[in-house]
Write a structure and sequence with these properties.
Layout lengths: L4 H32 L1 H22 L5 H22 L21 E2 L2 E2 L1 H11 L3 H9 L14 E2 L4 E2 H17 L8 E5 L6 H14 L4 E5 H13 L11 H5 L2 E7 L6 H16 L3 E6 L3 H7 L2 H10 E5 L5 H8 L1
Parallel strand pairs: 5-8, 5-9, 6-7, 7-8
Antiparallel strand pairs: 1-2, 3-4
Amino acid sequence: MPLKNSQYDRLMREYSQRQLQNERERQQRIQRVYEQIPQIAQIDRSIRQSACTYARRLIGGDAQALESMRLKLHHLKEEKASLLAAHGFPSDFMELHYHCPSCKDTGYIGSEKCHCLKQAAVDLLYTQSRIRDVLKEENFSTLNLSYYSRSLHPRLGKSVYEDMQGKIAFCRSYAASYGSDHYDSILFTGTTGVGKTFLSHCIAAEVLNHCHSVVYLTASDLFDLFSKATFYREEEQEDDADLYLLESDLLIIDDLGTEFSNSFTNGKLFYCINERLVRQKGTIISTNLSVNELRDLYSERVISRVLSNYHILELFGEDIRIRKKFQR
């Protein structure tokens, strides 16, 4: 759904405040360096004075002034860098530091919205703040395989532990290379509590860390958004009410099959899946239903798109939430 003017203005105010804070922090770092290395304060004064001197020479018609200025400034900057390094400061310590180096905290790269502004819009529109907190706790670094059995699983021909090792490795690779060489999609299936949502969180955290936009919704929330956009649209609202759902780099739909299923949800699910495939955007779907149960619940064209275009990862094991409860 599109941002309202008030929402856009709010985001841009946050960017302006971020820029001001960046400058305040830079000035604090400069003051710290000046106090510890007075020679650098003198070098900076020399740089400013030299720039003024050579500017006057250029205006006066001195053809050699520009090259002389370049050499002088180069030597001064080299001396400054050496002093910083000798005192244990990074070479860019006195420069501006940005939350987003891509757009330098402006929200735009040229006339295009930066990935950070797109994600900020996603977070605002879809109330993603809760999932941000979850991702701090549920990511690849906190993933624990000890809850999976090492006994032979009759259907797998190996232990669930070994099976999960392979699937986690796949998910790590998927997340690490997402957007650079693929926008593939995944369907996680399996019974309650075997790790489908956790793995979705792991991938989301990694993809976000690589500066891609992610929308994370339960199936019920997804269809509720489509319903509001379809039946409660204000006349002046733009037609691209689901733009961010379709254009986000990664869409994660959790708990598919828990929503009330009807022709409307079937139609919207196909629309969402198909449009994102056409736009070459990845989607991750998790469900407690088996593939056969999905066939019974959703239309053939939905299932056909998923089975022919998604990586199908079926997870096995016992309910980890229950195992955790009894191991406390």
